[in-house]
User: Which sequence fits this backbone?
């Protein structure tokens, strides 16, 4: 019984990682009530759908710990391949997650600005609406910064999966391509916004690799004998 538990442990971790990966992605993907360049319309959308807006903020908070757990589980699974690169990938992911957690404050800020508190009466309605829109714009830029770190994470993750003998190499290739596309898109957002606008959303299509990885981990897990083989190979530090 004990040997069987130890043998299935990597597969169980993989399936937990796959489930949490899908959950975090589901929580993260949603629209924002922003009307480009129109602060009044954006403010109206926020107040008219305040419950939805608050649910979006809560979803952000829930997706962050899910993704951190995914990162740590993937590190544990992939460190037999190359511990240093697995650790570097983990650092990129955790730094991006930390930036994202701080950036969520800009998501919450419009509710405070438009909340009608007495101390805000020194500002005109137009000024408050402008501040709310500015907060959401900051939030969007913060997410762009997060995705740069996430792009590096996907590149390293793809390489590690490609070098592993317990996960399909094709997933590693697809994930590395997705990481490159993320980097190209979000770096272009800062360097050449007009050019980046032409890339979106086509540049995100390779991101389907994340769904493939999550589903593979959830359904198939990892090849445990091969995981143990690589973990026990000379020079492997698990």
Assistant:
């Amino acid at each position: 019984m004990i040997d069987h538990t130890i043998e299935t442990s990597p597969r169980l971790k993989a399936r937990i990682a796959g489930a949490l990966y899908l959950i975090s992605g589901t929580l993260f993907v949603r629209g924002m009530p922003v009307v480009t360049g129109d602060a009044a319309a954006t403010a109206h959308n926020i107040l008219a759908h305040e419950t939805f807006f608050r649910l979006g903020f809560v979803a952000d908070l829930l997706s962050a710990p899910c993704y951190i757990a995914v990162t740590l589980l993937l590190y544990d699974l992939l460190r037999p391949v190359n511990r240093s690169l697995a650790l570097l990938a983990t650092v990129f992911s955790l730094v991006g997650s930390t930036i994202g957690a701080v950036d969520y404050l800009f998501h919450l800020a419009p509710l405070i600005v438009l909340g009608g508190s007495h101390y805000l009466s020194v500002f005109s309605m137009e000024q408050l609406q402008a501040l709310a829109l500015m907060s959401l714009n900051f939030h969007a830029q913060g997410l762009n910064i997060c995705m740069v770190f996430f792009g590096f994470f996907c590149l390293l993750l793809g390489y590690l999966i490609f070098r592993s003998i317990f996960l399909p190499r094709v997933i590693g290739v697809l994930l590395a391509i997705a990481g490159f596309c993320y980097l190209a898109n979000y770096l272009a957002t800062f360097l050449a916004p007009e050019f980046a606008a032409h890339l979106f959303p086509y540049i995100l299509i390779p991101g389907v690799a994340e769904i493939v990885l999550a589903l593979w981990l959830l359904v198939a897990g990892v090849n445990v004998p091969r995981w143990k083989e690589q973990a026990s190979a000379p020079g492997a530090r698990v």
About this structure: The two ends are 23 Å apart (CA to CA). The mean pLDDT is 86.
